[in-house]
Amino acid sequence: MSTTMSTAMPAGVPAPAPVDGPHASAEMPRTYVVRTLGCQMNVHDSEHMAGMLEQAGYTRASAQDEAANAADVVVINTCAVRENAATRLYGNLGQLASVKAARPGMQIAVGGCLAQKDRGEIVAKAPWVDVVFGTHNLDALPVLLERARHNAEAQVEIAESLQVFPSTLPTRRESVYAGWVSISVGCNNTCTFCIVPHLRGKERDRRPGEILAEVQALVDAGAIEVTLLGQNVNSYGVEFGDRGAFAKLLRACGTIEGLERVRFTSPHPAAFTDDVIAAMAETPNVMPQLHMPLQSGSDRVLRAMRRSYRSERFLGILDRVRAALPDAAITTDVIVGFPGETEEDFAETLRVVEASRFSSAFMFQYSPRPGTPAATMEGQLPKEVVQERFERLVALQERISAEESAAQVGRTLEVLVAEGSGKKDGATHRLSGRAPDNRLVHLALPDGVAVAGDQPTSLADPRLADAADLDPRLPRPGDVVTVEVTRAAPHHLIADSALAGGTFAVRRTRSGDAWARRETARLGGGDDHHGHGAPAPAGPVVLGMPSLRRAR
């Protein structure tokens, strides 16, 4: 079932001129940009949105056009979990109102969790929006855009249940070396602070064969890292009657040749079982990293949150994980100021955080989300109380993060070089990447080796040289560099070992080759003269999964 409505454009807001779709001008295809607000699930949904638009004939706007708000279509993929979600959305829309008024034919679409929640309210508040669609009908985006252009009125279509499994949709992958793969959508938990089950529905699991086929397709396209996504990954398999399915899936990923790093997020402590710990420890390409939300260290608050575990169980899981993977980095989510939280409850959270030794934590001040049971609970705390507790928790975790990072100094790590750089990398002549445990590492290159910016601006960029001419000391995004950690900060590591003639070795990977092919094609060198194998398309790879296109 879906809710569909059309809203006439109000006076003063230019109606788009009807055309025959994005292919109306073969010389000038319509351009798009997708702005993502929210979690990893939203990021992956945005890849699906981009894939569908490209399949329909749209092209990604250039970085310059994106910065200048000059795209023909702007899609905003929203979040509804955090307090400032609506503020961020309407801030974006307010900025775009004057841009659209000056650019007849421009379209604005709003999707994601806030769109699912607020529906027609978005068009009422921002009548210059052309399309509103929900979390259950991502596949409708191109059709709704064309319908809005043809009818010159806003289109709002919100499906009440999943129409097409998102992972069967075309996907424009932003990275050639790493990719997200959804193993399930929705959630069966009933946490009193969370609106996700209402917006994304009950958990739906994909079959293992479909997941592994998508992982294999990513690896075939050049990826060496995959992150398995789900609202509660370790309850995967319950829908089709196999409670051990997630551990089996991890082990199956270990048999895929060329797949070097497997990650997953996020598990729920109540469903975390020892077979998953064993699979993590015994599968070489499953990384020593775990993100597991604590939310509160108080058993009384956990009960009020309907989190079906207690603090001692949570700490017991961490003990067993560290016994099996001594180098594991564990991260978490914590909510401060849940309704009714006392100073004694908060002291319990501090105790558990101290004992857990998280490498980092996402810490949030509780904010009521309309439609959740917690929003109407008694005992809503004053802002100043929540703020003071939040600051104490942040100070504690910053100390722990600094201590845990300091323990990494002197370790030798394999760093997967990322495409984006850190804020100071240009000034320090460092590159950035991720260690196996997902810690951020800024690494120095040897003297005499330099990279001019993240993205090559010409075919003369030394990273695009013929394989025989590549400087063996110069890594490309997707390559792996072995370095020694020389300094540490709470949220990153510094590896300057190359500057002192210490540990520094570059390992070329298929992902680095795929990045070089992509950039060579983007810059017009399409003859594959670099000896990296078959040509890759310009821009990130769009993966269509035609053999899997069916609703479940």
TrEMBL record:
Region ranges (Disordered): 1-23, 522-552
Binding site for [4Fe-4S] cluster 1: 39, 79, 113
Details of cofactor binding: Binds 2 [4Fe-4S] clusters. One cluster is coordinated with 3 cysteines and an exchangeable S-adenosyl-L-methionine.
Ranges of residues in domain TRAM: 406-499
Basic and acidic residues: compositionally biased ranges: 522-531
Domain named Radical SAM core: residues: 173-403
Keyword check for Transferase: yes
GO cellular component: cytosol
UniProt entry tagged with the keyword ATP-binding: no
Broadest EC class assigned to this enzyme: transferase
Cofactor(s) it depends on: [4Fe-4S] cluster
HAMAP family: tRNA_metthiotr_MiaB
Record's protein name: tRNA-2-methylthio-N(6)-dimethylallyladenosine synthase
